[in-house]
Design brief:
423 residues, alpha/beta, Urease, subunit C, domain 1, TIM Barrel, 2 domains, 4-stranded mixed beta sheet, 12 helices, 32% helix, globular
């Protein structure tokens, strides 16, 4: 059989596949197995199955990407980061937002990114959306339209993104919170040191409580060890008794802190039940960048230490071809491969694959990925027969099944966006 094709059959039994042990009750990293597909679901085998020998091909459930920025995506041709710094990213993306983020511009770039993610095998995405007025009134309607259009292919969640200095209980952010609640979104903010940050965090959590919203923070995206807003977030969540899901992203400064201090903060994070999402590719790009000097630090947060404390840890794409990250394509296999290399996930626990499957599903409230009978046959099939083979190559010839049928994996051409960058 040509690996790139599967026969069109009412019942298809894939024999001799490789499955992650953590998804099928195994103790090791992988184990051999069989999957039968009928009616868009994984089912029990019968004598009526069309049987295909898959030669050890690895099968994963479709991916979940829980931290992206679809609204910023693919602006690099007109808004390149001038020096690769975090400050350069902030200023360049802000200027581009004010000048160019019309409904038509947003729709074209966001839909392009979603088609990429879909072709790579992603079924659910949370995206942060810059929401300073008047941008919130422009972006959220576009997001809601795309969420409806993509329903059944990619489940979309939206989280507002507003800096901590704009968070006021009785200020303009109240209207933003209402907008988010009306759209069924997540209340989000970027935290950084401010003299009154504790009060702003309390106001933020109370606004979320009043509207029944989850919250999602950008946290400590710096290698400055003195920056500890993560610690304050955990303390405030505990003090307020906030019981909706809380996600914290980045948490880079932990990796530069004294081990004892970082460990103490992680105990608070565990006690508060925070979900952590690490963005390894973007943080590697931005952090510890200095002209004429080789970077010493990777920017990845303390994922091993978090895991040891029972903290729910995920990995995600973050930015794509914009001033915060010049590369990427919303390919979650690439994210997991780079996280494995950068974070030394190998020679470690056998179930790190859950950081792009069950862990983000639990953090966001998406349906849990499964390979059990009754689960949707939303699968990604790779020629690789082991995780070593999986991470050694890009796996560009993967098969993506949705509802048990192979999708067209043709990626959109960058030339589609040329009209956005003319003039």
């Amino acid at each position: 059989m040509d690996f790139l094709t599967l026969p069109d059959a009412a019942r298809l039994r894939l024999e001799n596949v490789t499955l992650p042990g953590c998804l099928v009750g195994g103790l090791g990293e992988t184990m051999p197995g069989t999957l039968t597909i009928a009616g868009g679901e994984i089912v029990e085998p019968t004598v009526d199955d069309t049987i295909i020998d898959m030669a050890g091909a690895m099968v994963l459930p479709a991916f979940i990407d829980m931290h992206t920025h679809l609204d910023k995506g693919h602006i690099w041709p007109r808004a390149a980061n001038p020096d690769g710094s975090f400050e350069g990213a902030l200023s360049t993306s802000g200027a581009d937002r004010e000048a160019n983020w019309t409904p038509a511009d947003l729709r074209a770039r966001m839909d392009f990114a979603l088609r990429c993610a879909y072709a790579h095998g992603t079924r659910a995405i949370r995206t942060h959306l810059d929401s300073l007025p008047p941008q919130d009134a422009i972006t959220w309607p576009v997001f809601r339209e795309l969420r409806a259009e993509w329903a059944g292919r990619i489940t979309l969640q939206g989280a507002c993104l507003v800096g901590a200095d704009r968070i006021e209980r009785d200020g303009a952010f109240r209207s933003t919170a209402d907008c988010v609640a009306e759209a069924g979104g997540i209340l989000g903010m970027a935290s950084y040191p401010l003299p009154d940050l504790a009060e702003r965090l309390r106001s933020f959590l109370r606004l979320a409580t009043e509207r029944g919203l989850q919250v999602d923070f950008h946290v400590d995206e710096t290698m400055d060890p003195s920056v500890e807003t993560l610690r304050l977030i955990a303390e405030t969540v505990l003090a307020e008794g906030f019981d909706a899901p809380v996600t914290v992203g980045h948490c880079c400064s932990l990796a530069a802190q004294d081990a004892a201090r970082a460990g103490d903060t992680l105990e608070l994070v565990a006690k508060a039940g925070l979900n952590v999402v690490s963005l390894p590719m973007c943080n590697l790009y931005l952090q510890d960048r200095m002209p004429g000097r080789t970077p010493r630090l990777r920017g990845i947060t303390l994922v091993h230490e978090m895991r040891a404390r029972g903290i729910n840890v995920s990995f995600a794409s973050d930015n794509t071809r914009d001033p915060f990250y010049a590369y990427g394509d919303l390919d979650m296999l690439e994210v997991l491969r780079e996280a494995t290399r950068l974070g030394h996930l190998d020679h470690s626990a056998p179930d790190w694959v859950q950081t792009v499957l069950a862990n983000p599903a639990r953090a966001c409230g998406f349906a849990a990925p499964s390979l059990a009978p009754g689960a949707p046959a939303d699968l990604v099939i790779f020629r690789a027969r082991s995780f070593n083979e999986l991470f050694a190559r890009p796996q560009s010839d993967r098969i993506v099944l949705r509802d048990g049928r192979a999708i067209d994996r043709t990626l959109p051409d960058y030339s589609e966006l040329d009209g956005l960058f003319a003039g």
